[in-house]
Amino acid sequence: MTNRVQLAQIDPALALSPLDGRYRDDAAPLIDHLSEAALNRNRVHVEAEWFIHLAESGAVRGTRELLEDEKTQLREWAAGFDAETIDQLRTFEAVTVHDVKAVEYSIKEFLDQIGAGDLSELVHFCCTSEDVNNLSYALGIKGAVQDVWLPTARTLVDSLADMADELADTALLSHTHGQPATPSTMGKELAVFIHRLRRQLARIEKTEFLGKINGATGTYAAHVVASPGVAWPGVAQNFVEHLGLTFNPVTTQIESHDWQAELFADISRFNRICHNLATDMWTYISMEYFTQIPVEGATGSSTMPHKVNPIRFENAEANLEISNALLDSLASTLTTSRLQRDLTDSTTQRNIGVAFGHSLLALNNLVKGLGRLECNTDALEADLDRNWEVLAEAIQSVMRAAFLRGVGGMDNPYEKLKELTRGHRVDGPALREFVSGLGLPDEDTARLAALTPGAYVGIAAEIAREETAAWRASR
Questions:
Q1: Cα separation, 377 vs 372, whole angstroms
Q2: Nearest-5° angle of CA 46, CA 51, CA 53?
Q3: Nearest of 326, 383, 319, 16 to residue 180 by alpha carbon
Q4: 430 lies in which domain range?
Q5: What does the DSSP 8-state code read for residue 77?
Q6: What is this structure's pTM?
Q7: Are residues 185 and 291 part of one domain?
Q8: Does residue 392 form part of some domain?
Q9: pLDDT digit string (tens) for 439-468?
Q10: Residue 202 CB partners (closer than 8 Å, separation 6+)
């Protein structure tokens, strides 16, 4: 092994994280919002807009008017953030050893190039780095949630809604505590997940993305000394809202990150419901309630050629767990900052994209997995036909109702059905014979005699269709 190649020295560089390697295609849409480059692009945007905002508001008295052409050129330069800008910032940071200061110097250099260098000290005016960073992270997270994560999450629920509609009437034997229980329909069981996920999406869609720009300890101290008599909180609020964020008026040096913790908790909860979906679908596949459509040319097992492994659901399950471990850690860490400032959030927030990436990967796998399933109605019907004893609930409920109407001999219905069915297999003829000897009114006896496990699903189909309709109406 002495002559082995040092993989870290290979050019172009190899990825360490699977999100940047094996799973890059799934995670790639987040790069535009939550990568280091995206953070710097947002910093350039925030610094440029703050410069323009100050120049136009006249908050710093004595400065000349910013020309429209200068404003247009600056905005176009900021919007054109590209590989060349990234390299320039890297060069500045090698000198400053400070990422935000590198952005400031880069903008000042551009202002010199367009003849606006006399206004360059308005760049980063009265700002601490966190003034720029908190707004930049908020913009990145907002973009990631609204443009990438939410559309993918909605696609997953769309897939479930299509399946729930298709399988609304398809009866299945339920399993409570892993044992045969009152039948339902596959569509209704999928509708449960639609309803759960829909509630969480409604919470996430209402997220407030907060921001602040109030100086080193949140007091506007430098602002009022440098330019007294200005209503600086109003200037700051107008700027934060101009960026499309919600203003946080009372902070220390940092924006308190509580909104991030709230958002991450909501996404984590959505992930956990998806985890439950993944394990349920995996279980249905193992029970042969669903069969998987093989991918042409794909290998299920390296040694057992008959297998089609439920890899999409297993992959989703694992990545949801990784995502939640990070989201839970982020939510816990980011709500604490010692006194007026510490830097634990600085390195922590750089992992937001990783947490979102594993969630996005999982959601994509769930969509792909659901898309390659076929409901095995033969297996569903066979399982129902093996478990007529689940109708014991129906029979005892009819007996209870008859007792309440004054029909004699209907006392202790639960005990009578328990004696017949508990721990026993009961087929259709045996159950009908039992019903015929109960002394129920003819109408009740006929209704129970016609009942089968596959028909004992209540209004499951209606529930499924109502839920899918509600989901589609919310879209």
A1: 16
A2: 90
A3: 383
A4: 388-455
A5: H
A6: 0.93
A7: yes
A8: yes
A9: 899 999 999 999 999 999 999 999 999 999
A10: 474
